[in-house]
Amino acid sequence: MLNIFQHYGNIVEVVIPAKRDKGGRRFGFARFDQVKDVRRFGIELDNIIIGRDKIFVNPPRFQRDSG
């Protein structure tokens, strides 16, 4: 995941939990620093296919605490 997403900006963190979602699918989280156009960024990432799997993007709804 890191290799694919580094093209789109400065990656702060990537987490891929061992557990799966309710449908049995794998999922992960990528956190980026200083994204200028969040809407365009989400559209570009939402069109990525890895193997047979399509990436789905859910931008954060809340800001992270800095402390």
TrEMBL record:
Note the superkingdom of the native organism.
Answer: Eukaryota
Q: Name one Pfam family in it.
A: RRM_1
Name of this chain's protein: RNA-binding protein 25-like
Q: Where is the RRM domain?
A: 3-52
Q: Which GO terms describe its molecular function?
A: RNA binding
> InterPro entries per the record?
Nucleotide-bd_a/b_plait_sf (IPR012677), RBD_domain_sf (IPR035979), RRM_dom (IPR000504)
